[in-house]
Predict the structure of alpha-L-fucosidase.
Amino acid sequence: MVKKFLTLLLGFSFSFVESSYAQEPKPWGPVPSSAQLQWHETGMYCLIHFGPDTYTDKEWGYGDEDPAIFNPQNFDALQIVGAAKAGGFNGVVVVAKHHDGFCLWPTKTTEHNISKSPWKNGKGDMIMEFKKACDQLGLKLGLYCSPWDRNSPLYGTQAYVDIYREQLRELYTNYGPVFMSWHDGANGGDGYYGGAREKRTIDRTTYYGWDTTWKIVRDLQPMAAIFGDVGPDVRWVGNEEGHAGETCWQTYTPHAPEEDAIPANGFVKYWEATTGHRDGKYWMPAECDVPLRPGWFYHAADDAKVKSPYVLLDLYFKSVGRGAGLDLGLSPDRRGILHENDVNVLKEFGNILKETFSTNLLKDAKFEASNVRGNNHKLSGTSFLTDTDPYSYWATDDGVKTPELTVDLGKNATFNIIKIRENIKLGQRIDSFTVYALKDKRWEQIAGATSIGSMRLIRLPQYHTARKIRIRIDRSAASVAISELGLYAEPVHLTAPEIVRDKQGFVRLTTATPVSGIRYTTDGTEPTAISTVYTGPFLLKSNGVVKAKAFKDRLAGGLSVKEFGLVKASWKVVSPVKGDLSALIDDNEFTVAEVARKEGAIAPSSPAEVIIDLGDVTKIRSFTFFPPQSTSRSGLVDQYAFYVSDDNRSWRLAAKGEFSNIAANRIGQKIKLNEPVNGRFIKFVALNLIEGNKASVAELSVN
């Protein structure tokens, strides 16, 4: 009897202990691999484009560039990586080979490599320089070797695929551990191809034998996350503007091309890549890539067009703050270092991040949860919400999917940023939540959002002051597992002015917030507190650059820069004569004209052409083509010809080429002519459209 009693007692005691200690929730849905976890922990990194294109002023080289042009006399990997670190970035992905096929390491696979350049007398290895800089400064190294090679005569054959795989083996064997293996979606098209100078088309889904190719990465760099348009580890967000969707699921299901889903060119449908799939079969988070300048390679003409620190901050909230990664493009100049403007912006951005997130206003707050898993606060309690471990968490019991969390800060605090994270080792569990603040003894809703995952930052449109807040989980697929909660206040700043010019040449400056005044310049210098005060529209007849800043008391806002061509007051579209094509020349980049093909066009294969009368003989040094700013690919022009005439009868070819990467990066394409040309009429010919049969043009300008 005694033995039986003890057995029952011990059994009861064991059951009591077991029930009083919370068991970890079971993962829900797909979860990240170890390689993906370290990618999430990296948060944001930089993609470094440097090569022959830096010296030819192109975005995509054809592959016929002479390696002798690549000779950066002052190359300094420490300066480049150090600037990225100062900006708060945790890694760099170096473009070891771009589409032109030029390799920045002394590869054995092709003669088109850095050993054939005069840099360091052909003995240099730029990838090794970046590796050493990353090691010294404590940043992670990633590599990108373009699958497309416009130089190789073997491109399009299996022999080239073998070469490409050998290039990956060299890179992933000789430069230590990498955190990311980056693969672009641009594949196939016109190129030099060893002198053939032709267009080569491949099936990007099968040509490279991705399963075999990616296995090389898996075997040599098992902790590297592999990026591609549709994974396999990290997906492209669907734009090169640096932002994910307001809702952005970190799960995704790649699928075969379908009508209106993945076009024949292979690009995933914009909204799918941007938002992901709530019921996605795989953990495949999004990367948001965006260049610091308008383009990915350095162009001196863009020195004044570097994104401002607060533009970068906005992108940070719209990428990292939505559970994606931020990949910022850096482009060393011809010296082999980052331009001073780029360095200064990165440093200021890093300082703003530090100032914004240095103090979590909830650090000493008291939390009251409607449910704690197993009622065990030591294992699943709210104390884990403000520690430094991204995988410790407050959890609720199974079946408790809509809990509430009330937070008492102890005193009033002013904030405009709410931070919340899930323990993604257990999946992306929460569908939506709402945030309230206690004001005048009433709970006032101040924010709400959908997806959380690895990170959700809500940037409120105004500052709020409160002592208590409440988080309510409105919908969740499983019991919650929240690893972090925070309130922050970003530094007060003024928004950068908007600069617009009408067809008559009058420039208007506006701001979204009240300011003491806007000051501007037209001579290329940066506005200061003693620059010209904006009092109303002013006339800018000739081409030039307007720079503007808002000022209030001692506070200066962000810098706005806008480059304008010649005033178009006397311009007329003379061909085609049908349809309203005024949007071509209204000095508004957000209005679009569709130009149909004209029979008997100067280029028989061209889908469209337009002729503009400038009103008088004009000296033309360059022209600028603005593509539509929508997400549609229909009508996008990627090959062009530009002609000039005195009489609209006899035409002279002034420029011909391609708009590289225009589908993903829809910036103005400024084409400098080889020499100035005088003429009264200009003709723009669309030699090729990515899709559709009408050319879509937002604006044409000349300088």
Q: What stands out?
A: DSSP finds eleven helices and 35 strands in the chain. The chain has four domains: 34-245+289-337, 366-488, 498-564, 572-702. Residues 366-488 form a domain with the Jelly Rolls fold (CATH 2.60.120.260). Confidence is low (pLDDT under 50) at residues 1-21, 257-268.
